[in-house]
Structures
1.
Amino acid sequence: MFRIEPKKSEVVSFIVNGQLKEVILKGPNQTLAEVLRIKLDMTGTKESCQCGECGACTVLVEGEPVLSCSTLAIAVRGKRITTIEGLAEGGVLHPIQQAFIDSGASQCGFCTPGMILMAKVLLDENPEPTEDQIKEHLGGNLCRCTGYVKIIEAVQLAAKTMKSVGA
Amino acid sequence: MGETLTYVGKRLPFLKNREKVTGSVKYPSDIQVPGAHFGKLLTSPHAHALIKSIDVSEAEKVPGVVAIITFKDIPQKKINPAIVKWMHHHPEHDLEDMYVVSEKARFIGDIIGAVAAIDEETADRALGLIKVEYEVLPAALTTDEAMAPGAPLVHEEYGSNISLKAGFPGNRGDADSAFLNADVLVEAHVKTSRQHVWPLEPLTCTAEFTYSGELNVWTPAQRPMTSRKQIAELFELGEASVNVICEHAGGFFGEANWSIVPVCIALAKKAAKPVRLQYPPELYVLATPSREVYELSGKVGFSKEGRLMCGALDLLVESGGYFNRSSATTQPAMGAFQALYRLPVYRGLMQAVYTNTPTTGGARGYGEPQGVLLMEHLFDLAAAKLGKDRLELRYQNFKKMGEYAIQLPMETETQERVLRLAAEKFGWKEKEARPKSEGNTRRGIGVANYMDVSGGQPHELNDRHCVMSLEEDGTVTVTQSHPDGGMNLLGSCTQIAAEVLSIPFEHFHHVHGCTKGALNDMGLAANSGLYGMGNLYAKAAAALKEEILKVAARFLEEAKENLDIKDGVVFSSQDPEKKMTLREVGDRSIYNHSGGASHQISVTTGFNPKLNPAAVGTAMADITVDMETGEIKVEKLLNVHDIGRAINPMGVEGQLEGAMLLGYGYALFEDLAIDEKGLVRANNVNRYKMSSTLDLPDMEVVLFEDPAPSGPFGGKGVGMSGVLGVPSAIANALYDATGIWLEEMPYTPERVLAAIKAKKLES
């Protein structure tokens, strides 16, 4: 006979896009991606391969890129998390977001959130990356639509705008 | 071209891109229906097995389990998962051989049953308690095994694993005597690989029956209306009671997979609760079709002057466990063999063969890259034998105006100009003059021409409808059933409508990706989007303009013939005082209290294409081959594509660049790698290599524009086209560099090196 066993739940809190969020985990093995997508209904973070290979689930934890499908929510308790929903400020798109639009770098858009967050990490560290540096940096983010040409152009365009506005 | 266009031809932002870059677009996999239960699939671990019994009694006892289905719980009707039979004029070639839950396991991953439970863990626990007694059968894992005498039968009812033998589009002339009379004969053989187009969005389905007996289904549906049709037929529902919803999808690429949809619906029906079903990645590639797998043998004969006299194509389709698109994709493959060059005598035969492997068929390109691969290589072989230049031999044999593309007349003759432009942009002559050897490497260049379609005409019904309405605020709303799959099709069509109506592009609203409230539409296939939908939008916009001018003529007391629209304002060409904004027209027309004349200005429009302008193009590849490792490095890929007119050049470039990279991966490394037990080894992206930025070759796209008379502003199809020439150009470049023609794809370093050793080649 089976019975419903009480589950060990755990409360974790973190700051997502500047807001404090408290979440009851259904277990210690719940991933950050699942918490963001299902518990917090922030579906801008995408999940594709679920094995940390495609980059679609990339979010920033304390500014560093993290694969949220392969990261336990518990492991980032108390940390500052940035998701794609947190990039535009006051209705104004981040220059990288605008560059993705202007360059036609987003087709189906499923890889776009992860791609943009990865690009942000690069441009925050290196405002004038070479084409090879962009390719190297985005090597873990798969896109099946664009052939990457316009994504690379978008990052180059964003670098230019960010430099001119001093972002 | 003379005319000034405001919206057509402009690099406008793609529709809904602001939502995409902010993560606010909702894909079917993002939909969370309150109270949805979690579905899990039970699949076969055996490549071929009878199911003696399934005991679900223990699984049913698990608290939280709401439904378990096996073969006996599903509609006892066979379907074809490609759900294209309503489109095809000859549906008898789309064999219906699949139950939505199998009565017998035909490949590893075949769906045997499913569970719905309150959460994933409970569903997993129940799944583990289902006892299946299999009788493992000998399996036919290759076409050779499947065609051998006494082979185990994948589908007993056909009495053979060969399910279909057919020609396309029919033989012409006396091939035997033509081959005897030809001065030069060349032949080639190739077995193509299992690329999986692998859209990034995980395949999910959420099904919910409402209390009024209607059914809502959220799933990435490339063709929502045919999905609705098949669901209605299977579950004996009225078509209008089924609502298939897919506003956006994380990529389609032709796959339009359908196999989990009815399983999910069956679970929701039995549970009387909403159910969400998702393929885990490792199951996804087993249970969704890969690119069509062919063994192609081709032979062509030329006169000594270099005229193509005759050709023959034998094509073996490996269907895998189910027939799926074995016919639908093979027609384009055979078409591609004879589309571009005048081929007076032709004999073709396709045979579809079942094996105990995952089902194939229906990837972006739809058989055409394989047909191009073979024919373009035969041209290179013939050029060598004839002592002719590779490009010259092609120029000599291109079809001319007045000839038929495949089964419809050519509308423009651009092949030669496209190839000449490609040769110029690529620097063909200069590259050809370089030394072939350099250190440990050899260099080669390859060319491949293709002639793609702009829809499935004349073989398919591609009827489309939309409703286009003027709103009281002067904007226009378009309602139709298409999803946004990432091609910016709706954006391009809006540019067309904006041009026709002279209404700002930003003043359009879209209701899309939902069958409820939309009129019939056969959905996207065969490069049909821009041509079919673009013509529909152009036609609807012209009709709406007519209605707007009729109403405005009354309000302005001016003859309709004197009125026109410019930038959202109706004006008279005769009297500058007589003008009104579309807002005024729309608002006054609705809130018109005089004499019951109130109405919203709106048109319902249909477009059923009869023609099919051919979208031709040329791919060129410049490669080096490392003679010590066998590695091919692609230095340059070029694709010139005749788009007729680029409605949004940025979008067209994006379509071609993405498709070219798919073709590049197809040629060089993408493969599901099925082992000797029938198991897919490359079952997730950590094992299946797809191109990343690190693999990206130098790719260049050049758009060639010569408007097609029947296209919207001259536009033609493009979605699949970039895949067609690239694998062939790479293969021909390898042949140019080394004399190696690999009879098996993909062209991995191991295969190339083995061929180098077999030929005892040195750098």
Note: Chain A touches chain B through 62 residues (CB under 8 Å).
2.
Amino acid sequence: MSLKREIGFLLNGVETHATVPVDLSALSMLRDLLGLTGTKYACGEGECGACTIVVDGVSTCSCLQFAVDCDGRTLTTIEGVAGDPLGAKIEQAFVDCGAVQCGFCTPGMVVQAKHFLETHPQPTRDEIKRGIEGNLCRCTGYVKIIDAIEAASRADR
Amino acid sequence: MAVEHYWAPTSLSDALEHLRGGDVTVLAGGTDLMPQTQAGRVSLERGLLNVRRVAELHRIERVDGAVRIGALCTITEIMRDPLVGEHFAMLADACDHFASDQLRNAATIGGNVCNASPAGDTLVPLLVLDAEAELASKPGARVERRRVPLADFFVGPGRTRRAPDELLCAIRLPLPPPGFVGRFFKFGTRPALDIAAISIGIGGVRDGRTLVQARVAYGAVAAVPLRARRTEAALEGAALDAATADGVAATARDEVRPIDDLRASAWYRKELVFNMTRRILHDVAEA
């Protein structure tokens, strides 16, 4: 039985409390304790980006983040992206460009794209490729994902 | 062993007091600790000490003749820092080759140094830049500090000279002399999220057609990130021509002690060391 701690944080704009084992990942907390299953578990070791969330303004792999270290911080998951104007634009661009096939990488890809476009509002295609280098997709071959992120950046201008 | 205590102190003094009790795992970015514990390769000690809220370990500052990078600075923060960019471009370059955006945003330089992987991306440029590890402990009433040259800090894969009651506070980099040229090269199978098959750092001061104060380091070719003293001696003061590049590269190939593993064979690593050292020296000659 692991030691547990009570923590509080802002999750998609909502004050949230949880009691977490100190060795639990933020990904397990989101999916198993809080029921937010949009964030995906895939590799579990930071190689694939399917679990990408934003913590205090920067994207990170929630599978590598200790849940207990979320205490007092601000988290955004895919569930919080649609309510944001840029997030909504990216989601629509993914649909319009056919950037979603099986869809498993999509939540992580969209969250990373949002974080990337916030810091690179007018990216080149090469910059987009660098921006999503931590996110694996096994279906699309990436071209349509890059198209979508480019389209979302144009829609923003 | 089950974790019995969790602490997230905000002051260095408090953190060091928890560390003094022994049997403590230090947590910072967590990008290495989490997968290691999940895979069962590392088990957490009785105490889990989260140092990430100790603000004084999270600064990059100019101190007399040096720049002090706090152990909690993330790879992204170092990559974008103007002081680092101005004086230590090869370190910023290595940070740019580190994993992916998501990992760079969480991983700390202190973690990269304390994990002491022979392939740790920042370690090769830090060796070339004559970095020192600044360690703190609190054996009594006062915080005590000591500095260890990074070239002496690593003793084996995952093992360093940090004592169990010590915390790595900062990496201290002396400002390079005028005319300093530094190059970093990492070889992997893809640009992102790859562990280096080998990495190379070469630095020195251009003096006419020669390089003086030459410093050479290699990653993933020995049990520790390697400062290559024999290769440095071969390079020191020699004219930067094709014959020198060949000779220095051959010395490097003899000096490194790689192993066969899933990323490359020892033979291939030695050939990479030879070819890439030669290529970098040609590049430095034209700089």
Note: The helical segments of chain A are 26-33, 85-96, 106-119, 125-131, 143-155.
3.
Amino acid sequence: MSKLVRFAADILYPVVLIFGLYIVAHGHITPGGGFQGGAVIATGVALVIVAYGYREVTQWIGKGGLMAREVVGLLGFIGTALVAFIFGMPFFYNYLAGQGGLFGVPVTYGPNPGELNTGGTVPLMNFAVGIEVWGGLALVILYLLSGLVPHDDHEKEGS
Amino acid sequence: MIYEIFHILVLAGLVISASLTFWFRDLLAAVLAAGFFSFLISLEFYILQAPDVAISQAAIGAGLSTAIFIIAIRATGRYEGGAP
């Protein structure tokens, strides 16, 4: 793409990344969550991929890194749920809520502005889902674009 | 009053952009019209008090699927039924 598109993508990518991570981090308080935030981040990655083209992007973002994000997200989600067995609780039990410490502040009753440090395992699972969707949707775009590269080479040889 | 006017404008824009998606023979223009349709329907979801769905629709519909369609158009042809 042209220099103008690349410049706009350079400026917009950090903003989109921060906004997506904001949606993921506030998933248990405000509308949104892991999937929505991950989809927003994947849109930013798609913007960079479309602006710079397959060749240059694969030097920065490898398929291995995106697949690692997918694996880390899925293992984090199922691992957070499996840790409940250690405490003798059922699968997916929210063992962090109301205990103090990480995401453990008890929720106050009645109207309140919302405390970020609540929710127990729900924010951790939101982060896991966000990372997984980030890797998965960006990988879909990257694999679609990789099917386009031989076509481009063929065009260049023909012209 | 201004709320109803805005709502009717969004609904009219939905019908117009969906018709444009159908009528364009230039597929790139049709994809951009479909992206605008996705943006308007995410506004409509927000008006109907479903901000959660609106965020997904704006990210997936207006962002990712438009990029996927543009990649597909680059891999095939730009015009429906051959060159104009």
Note: Chain A has one domain: 3-158.
